[in-house]
Amino acid sequence: MTEIDSHLRFEDAPRELEAISFALDSSGWMDCTFAASDGVPLTVRASHVSDVLTDFLDAAWTLATESSRAASFVLHREPDATIVGCLATENHILLLITSSDDRRAYRFTSTPESLARLIYDGVAAVDRGAYLDTWPTHPFPEERLSNLGELLGA
Question: Scanning 6, 74, 96, 98, which has its CA 20 to 30 A from the CA of 87?
Fold first, then answer.
């Protein structure tokens, strides 16, 4: 798993988010990878306790429809967790990803439209069959994905 080097500090400028991807593990874990403009990705693991894809889609919908200026959710890692917070400013969204075990925070920036598209593309790329085999606790969020796709004109 690739992690950001420890030399990056919270005070450093947020990095532009370029992709979000989800990789399933046969043991009920999922890797969520945030690819940044500087080429240094952040990968966060989440257990099947989290409804990862739905949480990401709901945050994208909330921010893209401007029904809220903020969205947050927790990616459980048993017993630790990662908090994903999204805060909309005038034209950008700041993503703050905080790990409970090492208490480091990572910052990314995006626009509402770009973030929604990155989340849509990442979730759409997940293999449905593999998801059902490895993530039986939560159904694949097909309707939410479809709704976000319609909003984006995808």
Answer: 6
